Amino acid sequence: MNTLWQEEGKKFNPLVERFTVGDDYLWDTDLVPFDVDASIAHAQMLKSVGLLNAEENTSLVAALEEIKVLHSQGNFKVRQSQEDCHTAIEQYLTEKLGETGKKIHTGRSRNDQVAVAMRLYSKHRLQIILNELSKLTREVFSFVKQHERVPMPGMTHTQPAMLSTVGLWAGSFVESLLDDAKLAQEALGHTNANPLGSAAGFGPPVFIDRLHTTAALGFERPVVNAIYCQVSRCKNSEIVVGALAHIMSTLARMANDMVWYTSAWFKFFELGDDMVTGSSIMPQKKNYDVLELVRARASMVYASLYALQSLGQKMMSGYNRDTQLTKVEVMKCFAAVESSMEIMKLVWEKLSVNHKQLTSACGPEIFATDRVYELVKKGMAFRDAYQEVKRHLNEVSKEDMEQALAARTTLGSPGNLGLEYYEILVDI
């Protein structure tokens, strides 16, 4: 079957077809329901401006709803020869409805079709991300409250530094996730604009009611400028994946800390046998592969972000085929973030705390700064107290950790985590 643009009877070089289409048609399967929704809104708008009659609109909407059902059943496929889901949908309508099916493309281009489908897709996936992010944040916050006062050596430069707590360590992820949620909300806000009706990027030479489709599709506003409707596709992809990258950065820090703290060198935390893998040669091994893979996936998301940033800078204003490659990067990143959040939520649920090992790891050296401030409280200048303790480090002894924690009353410190600041936010 010919593409939408191909003249009947003309052959298309198969190598060119394979190269230009690539695996885009496979990824487009996920866009089908969103393109259908946009097509329904478009058909209803065409009726409202007199470009379709009531019967044509009814037939088109019914056939489009059929496609959604077929897709949900796994029975609507996009073929390589069709290039994309937009062609597959239009050809289905034409085969089923004849001349009426051919009218669905009035006033639009595949350029604005894919732009609006990707925005609808991203809106949907961002809402899922925000929901899962909320679940993960609540899980980590629950862990914080359970282990708020468990002593733990605070680390700087990968060396023991000062007295900390498991609550302070885990609480840093709560606040980071809350910031990530704000960025995801901002990305959702940017995505919530309608490019449909811009056609190829110059508007169609017939009146299209863009405010009609904007309202019908639940967008907050239209993307006004027709050229920017095309150009903004790259920018929106960058913004969306940028927000996802921040989430992955937080997850990677979680995972990396846990890789260290579950190791034989620390043994601060542990996961059960149902959460770890083994070795084909070393029978004693317990490998925390889930953590390593989360850490690695963060790097892959950042690689996608760089690809999007680089790609968007090198095109003349307007649509260019380069933007086809943004789709796969966005979709891959959503999949990576969703699966990583899901596994990290399970990790926090299952993570056990080795109180004895944590307490034992709090050696005398982490109380050196406490000793400095004991001298400061007695009137000695800080720098003199610092030098005094530094000269006699071998005399610093391990202190009562409960008392040491109780003395740390500054907001956000181990003795005063300020959890009340998170209580309301975590429940959002």
Features:
two-stranded antiparallel ribbon, mainly alpha, Fumarate_lyase_fam, L-Aspartase-like, 17 helices, two-stranded parallel sheet, Fumarase C, Chain B, domain 1, 428 residues, Fumarase C, Chain A, domain 2
Structure report:
Keywords: Amino-acid biosynthesis, Arginine biosynthesis, Lyase. Residues 35-301 form the Fumarate lyase N-terminal domain. It comes from Candidatus Magasanikbacteria bacterium GW2011_GWA2_45_39. With 428 residues, the protein is mainly α. It has 3 domains: 14-106, Orthogonal Bundle (Fumarase C, Chain B, domain 1); 111-146 and 165-207 and 224-360, Up-down Bundle (Fumarase C, Chain A, domain 2); 362-426, no CATH class. It contains 17 helices and 6 strands. The chain has helices at 14-21, 24-27, 32-48, 54-72, 85-97, 99-102, 110-146, 166-191, 210-216, 226-261, 289-312, 324-350, 355-361, 368-377, 382-391, 401-406, 420-426, and strands spanning 151-156, 159-165, 193-194, 221-222, 269-270, 352-353. The strands form 3 sheets. The protein has a two-stranded antiparallel sheet with strand order 1-2. It has a two-stranded parallel ribbon with strand order 3-4. It has a two-stranded antiparallel ribbon with strand order 5-6. A hairpin with a 2-residue loop joins strand 1 (151-156) and strand 2 (159-165). Helix 7 packs parallel to helix 10. The longest helix is centred in the first third of the chain and has 37 residues, at 110-146. The mean pLDDT is 92.
